[in-house]
Amino acid sequence: MPLRLHNTLTRAIELVTPANADGVFRMYCCGPTVYGPSHIGNFRAFVVQDVLRRALEIELGAEKVLHARNITDVDDRIIVQTQTEKRSLAEITAHWSGLFHADCRALNLLPPHYEPSAVEHIPAQVALIERLIFHRHAYRADDGSVYFDVSTYPAYGGLARLDFTALRKQTTNSAGEANLADKYDREAAADFALWKARKPEDGSNYWPSPWGEGRPGWHIECSAMIEKIFGGQTIDLHGGGIDLIFPHHENEIAQSCCAHESEPGYSFVRHWFHNAHLLLEDTKMSRSLGNLYTVADIQKMGFDPVVLRYVLLTAHYRSPLVFTQNGLEAAQSALHKLDKHLLALALRATGDAAKTKETLLRLKKSSPKALRWGRFATAWEVLTDDLNVPGTLGEIFKVEPKAATVEQAKEDLEGLLKITVGVLGLDLPLPETKILVPDEIVELAKQRWAAKQAKDFAKADALRKELSARGWKSLDRKDGYDLAKE
Ligand SMILES: [Zn+2]
């Protein structure tokens, strides 16, 4: 079955196919703003987009999918941070984008083919703003900032389907502070800043433009980069979290469509792909609420990033996902089950315990598209229906682990690798070393060993029980101990 996805623009499930004659599928996703660690809620979007990309590569071939994801490395919040930390914009953004990339690798995300940064593309943004002024969709305010004139684009609001009774025109900068901000909370259509005139607090973070020194607004960044990377062609898919639908994506549409208004039939994006939030017991995880978890936090809790990746895939991408410790534990045991299934199939297929791992790793290196589905074809079919990952996982576990024949085992082995590693991006088989021990367990075990050495057997036993209550045991040797899961 060809891949079908929900399109936010039409609110319908539609076939996903490349628009351009070259058959290349072009996708663009809004990336992180690098002024702090990305939290696992941010990574929900990137993991879901990664599964989508892998599914497209299975369907179209890896060489037919182009994926771009930007890095926002200048905005209000980063500039505030340059002042509080007394470090340069470049230092701050290099540090946090480095950490972002390390987290992406830990979560087994395929690197995008293009990863443009806002600071590296100032001229492209200036050029796009010039076109919008030329076509009378943008105007320069008295302070040197440039605004998009929302009233000149009657289709504004079409993606979010907001009914704007009054479009707020901003003519001076007196009431305009909110419109200058990179972040919006209000559901109101208002002219928004394309270029922000230099202010004293910007420090050295400004660039020249025909309208004076300043810096680009956040929204223009994505329109300009899409234009630059994909040469003004229609892109097939644009992704992001649902919070970006309005105003960010609405503004991207307005900017790009107005810049191309002289081209009849121009279309900016065919398919809008939005994922729901990650919740912590009914509240959204966000930096401003101070309730965020990072990939490192999850590792400190004793879970490998592959467990987090699995958790992030346990709800359908358009449904909110509630993050809990129980969810992590359930994901861990599900992964162990998949691991066992893979090893059992590999053993049956090779008939030689010594060759099991080697065969698995060799198959894992081959292109997922080239592998057969075996009895996992249904799992893929389910996935093609609006990226139904929870349904896919259900189908995978429905397959009886025992294969009837060696030939069946060979096909199934390919199929299970294809769906779990190739499509879902779960880095299996799990290496032994991937069992991480949480800090508190390490500490308890240390105390227990010390008590035992001091012959305080009552204390050592109490600590043994405490370890056991947390699911761990100490395997003692003469000269030390190893920790194992009970
Ligand atoms: Zn964007």
Characteristics:
alpha/beta; Rossmann fold; 3 domains; 4-stranded parallel β-sheet; 4-stranded antiparallel β-sheet; 16 helices; 43% helix; binds zinc ion
Tell me the layout of helices and strands:
Blueprint: E1 4-7, E2 12-15, E3 25-29, H1 40-60, E4 65-69, H2 76-85, H3 89-106, H4 122-134, E5 138-140, E6 146-148, H5 177-180, E7 192-197, E8 214-216, H6 218-230, E9 235-241, H7 245-259, E10 269-275, E11 278-280, E12 283-284, H8 295-300, H9 305-312, E13 321-322, H10 325-350, H11 356-365, H12 377-383, H13 389-398, H14 406-423, H15 439-453, H16 457-469, E14 472-476, E15 481-485
Parallel strand pairs: 3-4, 3-9, 9-10, 11-13
Antiparallel strand pairs: 1-2, 5-6, 6-7, 7-8, 11-12, 14-15
The structure holds zinc ion.
Biggest β-sheet description:
4 strands, parallel
What name does the CATH topology of the largest domain carry?
Rossmann fold
Shape by Cα distribution = globular
Number of strands: 15
Named at the architecture level, the CATH assignment of the largest domain is: 3-Layer(aba) Sandwich
Put simply, the count of helices is 16
Distance between the termini: 43 Å
**Rg, please?**
26 Å
Oligomeric status of the shown chains?
single chain
How many structural domains are formed by the residues? 3
What share of residues is helical? 40-55%
Mean pLDDT: 91
Low-confidence stretches: 169-179, 183-187
Within CATH, the superfamily of the largest domain carries the name: HUPs
Sequence of strands across the biggest β-sheet: 4-3-9-10
Could you tell me which ligands this complex binds, including any ions or cofactors? zinc ion
* Helix-strand category: alpha/beta
User: Which range does the strand content fall in?
Assistant: 5-15%
